[in-house]
UniProtKB/TrEMBL annotation:
It comes from Albidiferax ferrireducens (strain ATCC BAA-621 / DSM 15236 / T118) (Rhodoferax ferrireducens). Residues 27-264 form the MmgE/PrpD N-terminal domain. This is MmgE/PrpD. InterPro entries: MmgE/PrpD_sf, MmgE/PrpD_sf_1, MmgE/PrpD_sf_2, MmgE_PrpD, MmgE_PrpD_C, MmgE_PrpD_N. Coiled coil: none annotated.
């Protein structure tokens, strides 16, 4: 295999190109995944992939001592018993699927993980744990792990983008729903499945994919399981395909395929199914993955940043009489409604999905960080008084989902108004967080529960992942034991 620094090598497969019009989406995606090699990926994409993995590992280590992490990892261990696969930052070793599930839960649990913008989906937190577990099982190279991860991002992002935010509006969480297909392709790549085998695997995944947004009603923990279930289900689907279980090949566009069963007619009509395979090997969706500057739902980041900007401009919270947040229409049901409940989050998870809390926190404290999500911070009377003043309106000028826009307008006691607009959210591909920024975030997260020396060792390994000879040794390093 040639070095990634040599740049992408054109794919010359006239048969695949000639038959593309006749193939199902699953078959086209399967052909892409089977043929993908790291030397066909631009060096900049390979580098960015490593930084996205670094970000996810930092989030997982930051979460490992949280109550949800201890409880949910213990539940997995009780269910499955011991196994050979490692868990990030933990002594426990679990069976393959359970290790992938727990690692996904850890990486996603703080809601500090990356988001593919157009797909409105968190992919690294499911696809990387699958790549880690599967590559470690066979002791594949770091390059093989990284290639499978990139395949999962490229395919999952496209599948999710077809719905144009519709899955959320229909009450489904694409991180789990679409993530199952992405994880299936990661596992299938590392199992060496043929294009037909990968198409079968996606057909099997269709019967396993799920993920409800009902957690939004009460701030419950089920969302933390979503990427883990995608990881577990994806490994299952690929493994059954390896055993040549017959499965449908029209998993997406079929009469009972993903889009027609999970989207009502109006949202289905807005879909563009061509996006599922558009630009494979020419355009890299990994470039459109946004790294989070705040540990909360990405859909409220624009308003959070706008509120922080007003704080820095000297707006006095005690003089505020009214607050209005402008948000995209597609995010209202997630971060704004029901408004009375959003003004009184009862848990950290509630607060992570509350536009009023993000805005009040930004205006009062000039930040929105992990320490702002503990019970004392949420119950602060000054914060609650500001949340009571927050209203929302639909931002008619929003470019969502291309950008997670936000604007905050405050009315002061003298009748004057101050406003700040965020047209492009920080972390977006058009306003990216750099590799150096990601390293800083990684060290800040990692050293909440581990040493700086351990952080440096992990950083060095992740940023050289494409040259590591042993995924099993890499997995052991991540356990910090």
């Amino acid at each position: 295999m040639s070095s990634p620094s040599e740049g992408p090598r054109p794919m010359h497969d006239s048969t695949m190109k000639h038959e593309a019009q006749e193939q199902t989406v699953s078959e086209q995606i399967g052909a892409f995944v089977e043929k993908l090699t790291l030397d066909r990926v631009p060096a900049a994409i390979v580098e960015r992939a490593k930084y996205l993995i670094l970000d996810a590992v930092g989030c997982a280590v930051a979460a490992r001592e949280e109550p949800f992490a201890l409880t949910m990892s213990a539940a997995a261990a009780q269910l499955s018993g011991d196994g050979p696969r490692g868990v990030i930052g933990m002594a426990a070793r679990l069976p393959l699927r359970d290790a992938a599930l727990v690692n996904s839960m850890l990486a996603h649990g703080l809601d500090y993980d990356d988001t593919h913008t157009a797909g409105v989906i968190h992919l690294t937190v499911s696809t990387f744990p699958v790549a880690l577990a599967m590559a470690a099982r066979s002791d594949a190279t770091g390059a093989a792990l990284l290639t499978a991860y990139i395949a999962g991002i490229e395919t999952g992002a496209r599948i999710a983008s077809v719905a144009k935010g519709g899955f959320h509006r229909a009450g489904f969480h694409p991180t789990s729903l679409v993530g199952t297909f992405a994880c299936t392709l990661v596992a299938g790549k590392l199992l060496g499945l043929s294009p037909d085998g990968l198409a079968d695997a996606q057909g099997i995944a269709l019967s396993l994919a799920s993920g409800s947004l009902q957690f939004l009603e009460d701030g419950s923990w089920t969302k933390r399981l979503h990427p883990g279930w995608a990881a577990s289900a994806g490994i299952t689907a690929a493994s059954y395909a390896q055993s040549q279980i017959p499965a449908p090949h029209a998993a997406y566009e079929g009469r009972y395929g993903l889009f027609r069963t999970h989207l009502p007619p109006d949202l289905l009509a807005a879909c563009d199914e061509s996006l599922a395979t558009a630009g494979l090997m020419q355009q890299w969706e990994l470039e459109q993955v946004a790294v989070k500057p705040f540990p909360a739902c990405h859909l409220l980041h624009g308003c959070a940043d706008a509120a922080i900007a007003l704080h820095r401009e000297g707006v006095d919270p005690q003089r505020i009489r009214r607050i209005r947040g402008l948000v995209p229409a597609g995010v209202v049901q997630v971060v704004c409604e029901p408004m009375q409940a959003k003004r009184r989050p009862v848990s950290d998870y509630d607060a992570k999905f509350s536009m009023p809390y993000a805005v009040a926190c930004g205006l009062l404290r000039g930040r929105f960080a992990l320490d702002d999500l503990n019970a004392e911070a949420i119950a602060d009377s000054a914060i609650q008084a500001l949340m009571d003043l927050v209203e929302y309106a639909v931002d008619e000028a929003s470019t969502y989902p291309r950008h997670y826009t936000g604007e905050v307008i405050v009315e002061l006691d003298d009748g004057s108004t101050r406003r700040h607009r965020v047209a492009i959210n920080r972390g977006n591909a058009e306003r990216p967080i750099t590799g150096a920024d990601i390293e800083s975030k990684f060290f800040e997260n990692f050293t909440r529960t581990a040493t700086h020396e351990q952080a440096q060792q992990v950083l060095d390994a992740v940023l050289h992942l494409d040259t590591l000879p042993s995924a099993a040794r890499f997995e052991s390093l991540l356990t910090l034991q």
